Amino acid sequence: MFHAYLSTRVVLVPGAIRQSRRFISLSPTQLKVNACSIYKEDHKEIQNTLKKIIDKDINPHVDQWEAEGKFPAREVFKKLGSAGLLGVTKPTEYGGAGLDFSYSVALNEQLGAVHCGSVPMAVAVQTDMSTPALARCGSDRLKREFLAPSVAGDLVSCLGVSEPGSGSDVASIQTRAERKGDDLVINGQKMWITNGCQADWICLLANTNKGAPHKSKSLICVPMDTKGVTIAKRIDKMGMRSSDTAQIFFEDVRVPADNIIGEEGKGFTYQMEQFQEERMAGIALSLVPMELCIQQTIEYTRQRKAFGKSILDNQVVHFTLAELQTEVELLRSLLYRSVESFVQGEDVTELVSMGKLKSGRLVREVSDKCLQFWGGMGFTNEVVISRMYRDLRLLSIGGGADEVMLGIVAKYMGTLPKPGK
After folding, report:
1. What is the spatial distance between Cα 411 and Cα 38, in angstroms, rounded to a whole number?
2. Which of 43, 232, 358, 393 has the most CB atoms within 10 Å of its CB?
3. What is the tens place of the pLDDT at every residue in 125-163?
4. CA-atom Rg of the chain in angstroms
5. pLDDT tens across 301-345, in order?
6. Rounded to an integer, what distance in angstroms lies between the CA atom of residue 104 and that of residue 210?
7. End-to-end CA, the chain
8. How far, in Å, CA of 167 to CA of 238, rounded?
9. Where does 256-415 have alpha helices with state H?
10. Nearest partner of 110 among 46, 156, 58, judged by Cα
11. Treating both helix axes as pointing N-terminal to C-terminal, what angle do 267-303 and 349-373 enclose, rounded to 10 degrees?
12. Of 174, 163, 171, 172, the residue nearest 248 (C-alpha)
């Protein structure tokens, strides 16, 4: 079972600061914790288990992984899987804990304590992006072949939706999977695939019939070592440096037709459902990094002197930080409201889209305003604030761009113009 710990909301205690090369870190024994009402003791036990792994097996290596442009996904995932952290919401018969989605959110919020965005994003792909549809709708065979070993950390997964000409416009993807006897023959390509270079299998969205765009697609489990699957290139990115991101080609890739998850033609619907979990995971992952930016900026500006006083003593600085912290707390409340409604089976598409939009914009505001107060030091790679500035920028793009979120909210408000015929 998990070991009791705390929620992720922390407050600095004077004297709890020590300086390191890349960040001003907090002494774990000198933290106060504000209880979060959405989390019970079991949630906190999961967070404590994860925190121990982060402190011992992840954060000490982040600088090296970022410099190398890659982290050992199989090694990290196996440690998380062995601790029961890759399947908290997955069915018990496939190695999961069978808990509700609030536990996944607690996990993702604690993952934000990793000192980069890459590793948390890669883990979330495994837990909340590539496997939810499989867990809900996949056959027993598929769950035993792909889900169970992913929950155990024995396999690394990725999600194949985006293409060079189809990012947020999921309905326009071109990859095809044509039925040939009892098999599917897949041709096409996928772009910007997180975990793609290290993955053992991909949850692939492809067209399986010539029907309407929203009814022509299926999600398919495809082993990455299948003949015809080619990692075309590893994409060089501005941020998320230690997360491998791939362009993948599929040329006459043959897999059994019963590798389709759930019903054939329901892939678009399944993917839209997966997006809700992905977006809530993304919001949760953003909270602690924003607090880290704020708290480290407080400590740096308190120590840094200019014109006879600390930078922090300037009203524009401490007022700005107070405003940013207020915004983070409001976002946390919106996330928790969304999660509670989701667990109760309600449609949370509008709330989640609002949260995803707000999160993507707020991480940019927090990282940019905090970096400004670091002055020249903030423009170096010697401090974590510059890494967060690069990494967090992705949130307004991945998992549905800000503009797509605005369109969804407008649709629910009844203000989105109807498409012309």
Report:
1. 29
2. 43
3. 999 999 999 999 999 999 999 999 999 999 999 999 999
4. 22
5. 999 999 999 999 999 999 999 999 999 999 999 999 999 999 999
6. 36
7. 57
8. 18
9. 267-303, 315-343, 349-373, 384-391, 402-413
10. 46
11. 30
12. 163
- Torsion, Cα 95 97 100 101, to 10 degrees, reads -60
Dist CA 58 CA 60 (whole Å): 6
* Distance, CA of 385 to chain centre: 19
CB-based burial, 143-156: b 16+ in 10 Å, e otherwise:
bebbbbbbbbbbbb
**Cα(365)–Cα(6) distance, rounded to whole angstroms?**
28
- For every residue of 148-208, which 3-state class applies, written as one string? HHHHHCCCCEEEECCECCECCCHHHCCCEEEEECCEEEEEEEEEEEECCCCCCEEEEEEEC
Q: 278 an active-site residue?
A: yes
Q: Residue 352 is encoded by which pair of tokens?
A: 């989640």
Task: Report in angstroms the alpha-carbon separations of 143 from 150, 157, 190, 259.
Answer: 9, 13, 23, 10
State how far the Cα of 336 lies from the Cα of 354, in Å rounded to an integer.
13
DSSP element (H, E) containing 137? helix 132-137
Distance separating alpha carbons of residues 417 and 255, to the nearest angstrom: 41
Instruction: Specify the DSSP element, H or E, that contains 140.
Output: helix 140-142
What CA–CA distance (Å, rounded) separates 197 from 189?
14
Catalytic site residue from 278, 323, 346, 350: 278
Distance separating alpha carbons of residues 367 and 355, to the nearest angstrom: 18
Question: Token pair for residue 172?
Answer: 């326009």
Q: Give the model's confidence band at 30: pLDDT under 50 very low, under 70 low, under 90 confident, else very high.
A: very low
CA–CA separation, 113 vs 61, rounded Å? 14
Q: Is 387 exposed, middle or buried (0-12, 13-18, 19+ CB in 10 A)?
A: buried
Q: What is the spatial distance between Cα 186 and Cα 74, in angstroms, rounded to a whole number? A: 27
Tokens encoding 107? 């996990």
| Alpha helix stretches (DSSP H) within 33-100 | 41-53, 62-68, 73-82
| Nearest alpha-carbon partner for 242 in 195, 210, 180 | 195
Query: How far is residue 271 from each of residues 160, 275, 288, 400, measured CA to CA in Å?
Result: 11, 6, 27, 12
**What is the per-residue pLDDT across 241-291, written as a single tens digit (0 to 9) for each?**
999 999 999 999 999 999 999 999 999 999 999 899 999 999 999 999 999
